[in-house]
Amino acid sequence: MSAAQRAGLMRLLEECDSDGTTLFNRLKKPAQGPTWSHFKNLIRRLEWVDGLGGTGVWMDGVAAGKITDFAGEADAADASELRDFVPVKRIALVAALTHKARMRVRDDLATMFCKRVATKIKKAKAELEEIRLAEREIVEALIGNYRTVLKHIDEGGPAQEALEKAAAMTAEARKALEGLDEEASVDEVATRLEGRVSPAVIALVKAQMVQAAAPNSADASNS
Questions:
Q1: Cα–Cα distance for residue pair 116/96, rounded to 1 Å
Q2: b/e string for 19-51 if b means 16 or more Cβ within 10 A?
Q3: Are 22 and 79 in contact (CB under 8 A)?
Q4: What is the pTM of this model?
Q5: pLDDT tens digit string along 147-175?
Q6: How many CB atoms lie under 10 A from the CB of residue 162?
Q7: CB 52: neighbour CB atoms within 10 A?
Q8: Is 22 helix (H, G, I), strand (E, B) or coil?
Q9: Residue 87 Cα to chain centre, angstroms
Q10: DSSP readout, 97-139?
Q11: Which run of H or E residues covers position 142?
Q12: CA 197, CA 208: separation in Å to the nearest integer?
């Protein structure tokens, strides 16, 4: 540890933070709730604690249990108590706490990031479900309106009257032609329908029947 780094650790016990407490207390602050502002503050704290020095190099060769004990002793004390220690022990305790603080801030940052992502995913799923429900309501409303339009389209108008008249005429014609042989003549069909068939239609049917029989007559004459 360089002289400048040791002096920097000692200043933590003297200089005050924005809240009036010493910078030493900043090392001991726990992570706050996983909000975006707290996440940014935690990033700044990581940059600050990394700027205090390479604690991994300082603790090289020191047993992990010893580091934990020193850090715990420093965490339990306040700045005024640590200033009463001899310089070597004071630096050792603050350095151990700084090392643990760097590790804790990284863990807190990763945990907060995961919580932020989980919160965003949960919120996105809820919003997606709301969109689906809203779209389903819109579709159901459109279908209902479409059915209403189809039901009442041209109700009582000329088109509706024509359809009803055509349906009635078809039903009446089917009833009149019940039991009629498929080979029945056009005249018989016209009789069944009481002459309500256009003469032009009857003449056209007769002509088609004569035309259909013509090849058979020709074959009979040739033979």
A1: 30
A2: eeebbbbbbbbebeebeeeebeebeebbeebee
A3: yes
A4: 0.55
A5: 777 666 666 666 667 667 767 776 776 67
A6: 11
A7: 21
A8: strand
A9: 59
A10: HHHHHHHHHHHHHHHHHHHHHHHHHHHHHHHHHHHHHHHHHHH
A11: helix 87-152
A12: 16
Give all strands (DSSP E) within the chain, no chain letters: none
**Residues across the chain:** 223
Nearest residue to 49 via CA among 101, 96, 89, 120:
101
Question: Quick one: pLDDT at residue 220?
Answer: 44
Please report where in the chains the tokens 């498929």 appear, as a residue.
182
| CB environment 70-101: b (16+ within 10 A), e (fewer) | bbebbeebebeebeebeeeebbbbbbbbbbbb
Residue type, 56: G
Task: Specify whether the CB–CB gap between 95 and 26 falls below 8 A.
Answer: no
How far apart, in Å, are the Cα atoms of 95 and each of 5, 39, 62, 91?
Answer: 10, 25, 12, 6
State which amino acid sits at residue 163.
L
Measured CA to CA, the distance from residue 109 to residue 39 in angstroms comes to: 7
Q: What are phi and psi of 16, to 5 degrees?
A: -100, 150
